[in-house]
Amino acid sequence: MIGIPDRMMASVLVSPGRLEVRDVALPVMEPGDVLVELTAVGLCGSDVHFFEHGRVGDLVVESPLILGHEAAGVIAAVASAADEHRIGERVAIDPQRPCRWCPACRAGRSNLCERMRFPSAPPENGAFARYLAVPADAAHPLPETMSDDEGALLEPLSVGIAAVRKAGVVPGSRVLVAGAGPIGILTGAAARAFGAAVVVVADPVAARRDVALAHGATRAVDPAEVAELDGRMDAFVDASGARAAIAAGLRSLRGAGRAVLVGMGSATVDLDLFLLQSRELVVEGLFRYVDTWPLAIELVASGAVRVDDLVTARGGLDDLAGFFARNSDPDTMKFLVDPRVR
Q1: Structure confidence by residue, pLDDT tens digits, 137-152
Q2: 3-class secondary-structure state, position 283
Q3: Does the global pTM surpass 0.70?
Q4: What are the residues facing 265 on neighbouring strands?
Q5: Residues with Cβ < 8 Å from 61, sequence gap 6 or more?
Q6: For FRET with 135, which of 31, 85, 164, 274 sits at 20 to 30 Å CA-CA?
């Protein structure tokens, strides 16, 4: 590949709590891939779990790993001559690499692929590096009006889009979102873009409630106030992972209401089975997304959803350790890394 080195700099998780910027081999493109020079990569909650605990659920870091999957950049090389015209194209990356032929993939649920390879999920290296190889159809062209930062934040927005789709949000819906981190904020914003008439976001931190209001929520409340919503909401999305928030959110639902659990928190929760049965509630989990990038791009490009003002700070690979340390600060939202910069 002309002009592209054989090696690159990357931030590597060596052990829980320990990052090193290392010189590593360039990713190898597979047939149908493009090689993206990354310009903006967001720090995700799952990255934080891997950094702090060395695992997320049954995904365990057993060897040095490059984290990061919220990414945008420029196509620098291609595996197929048919894609040569795309070199130099600015893109946002859907990080999933499904097998495309297992039962889940064939059923249109590629996010549940039995052989999924996902950057930053062990053992797949991720995007806190100069380059990332991805399937060509996972590199979505960005409009000229959108920044690379906005392109990287399409990934958390995609989670929000997937959540409100699964929750059945339609024009006029009444929606409760628990948790006002980036996912909760963007879930609320997506719900409003889908036409929800009422979007209530609950979070114990006043500053985060203010951010929710600035991004489309019609009301932002302390979790203690959720009790007054008993039986009034059509849909509930938990982006907190907190047991109390899930219990209160389920009780907020009317008969036949839908709950979608997104947040990573307690491994187990207690469910009021009589509530679920007597109101015939539908409770589902959410794991990533399917075919959300085209809509995410349209929502941001049209101004229906804002994402760039969620960025707390930007930096290079050497700044990543500090971003992890600051991530627990409730006044922070999203950190972005430009892997071209040390």
Answers
A1: 999 999 999 999 999 9
A2: strand
A3: yes
A4: none
A5: 13, 16, 50, 54, 55, 122
A6: 164
